[in-house]
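Key result, reporting period 2: structure in, sequence out.
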């Protein structure tokens, strides 16, 4: 295991991002892209351990602005294209290439993975898009038309009242979300049984980055990514691709199966007991599916 800080050049100066490499496999080196934007790679801890035990080299990485990396305050840095360029700089610094480089992006990291494959597909051996739809407008439609109607409507009405008043930091808002949303669709376990490392990762969220790009609400997106839609471009992703969906996720499993079908070398993995953090609440299915994909593509 080795930690390394990698210099990243940006339009407003140079910063450093944190990485940690565990395991050693010159044929299968997996870079993890965490969610948020603004979360951290901490919640990948269990997945990393399982994949390394199976012989995969895993590289955890906190994106710029996240917990163990530099956290500049210039908001011009919180831009999708700049984040994609950052991933490419990390790849080069770590010596990853098309013979061994696998990319797994979870949630927001899935957006980064799709964008990276569209721009730098020649540099990667295979990608894994985990728990992320290819269209924010489609995600928002799913949230309003399918997902929200299943919630307790009294609680939902109160959540919306608090959001309308921009009282996102109120304890009542967080408590309602935990009871009626998080424990059903983010990580399916009682709140007091959530793994400490997952709680830590949420606590370490850079809210400035998250709110600007995703928006403040947990029931849909409203930030700078609100119009992002790459479904019609998926046919241009020609590298082997695995799309991971989960039955209880906030992301539409039907849309995600369609994503896999759009990509020439795409395939699906569905976690029947999982939610947004399926690497935790449907760990066996998730980990074995990811491992099988990497082994299959590695040959």
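The corresponding designed sequence is given below.
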């Amino acid at each position: 295991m080795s930690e390394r800080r990698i210099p990243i050049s940006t339009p407003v100066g140079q910063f450093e991002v944190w990485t940690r490499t565990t395991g050693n496999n010159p044929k299968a080196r997996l870079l993890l892209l965490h969610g948020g934007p603004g979360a951290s790679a901490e919640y990948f801890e269990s997945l990393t351990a399982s994949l390394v035990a199976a012989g995969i080299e895993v590289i955890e990485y906190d994106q710029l602005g996240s917990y163990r990396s530099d956290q500049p305050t210039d908001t011009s840095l919180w831009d999708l294209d700049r984040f994609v360029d950052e991933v490419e700089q990390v790849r080069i610094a770590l010596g990853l290439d098309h013979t061994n480089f696998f990319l797994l992006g979870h949630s927001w990291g899935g957006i980064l993975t799709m964008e990276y494959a569209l721009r730098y597909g020649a540099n990667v051996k295979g990608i894994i898009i985990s728990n992320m739809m290819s269209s924010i407008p489609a995600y928002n439609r799913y949230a309003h038309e399918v997902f929200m109607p299943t919630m307790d409507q009294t609680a939902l009405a109160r959540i919306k009242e608090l959001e309308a008043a921009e009282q996102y930091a109120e304890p009542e808002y967080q408590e309602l979300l935990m009871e009626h949303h998080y424990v059903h669709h983010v990580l399916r376990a009682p709140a007091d049984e959530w793994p400490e490392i997952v709680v830590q990762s949420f606590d370490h969220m850079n809210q400035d980055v998250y709110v600007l790009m995703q928006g403040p609400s947990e029931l849909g997106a409203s930030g700078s990514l609100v119009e992002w839609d790459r479904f019609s471009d998926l046919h241009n992703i020609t590298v082997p691709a695995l799309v991971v969906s989960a039955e209880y996720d906030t992301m539409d499993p039907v849309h995600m199966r369609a994503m896999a079908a759009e990509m020439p070398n795409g395939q699906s993995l569905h976690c029947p007991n999982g939610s947004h953090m399926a690497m935790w609440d449907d760990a066996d299915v998730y980990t074995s599916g990811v491992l099988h994909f990497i082994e299959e593509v590695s040959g």
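The beta strands are 2-10, 13-22, 29-33, 57-62, 101-106, 126-130, 241-246, 266-271. The domain at 2-138+224-298 is CATH 3.40.50.1820 (Rossmann fold). This case is discussed further under Risks and Mitigation.
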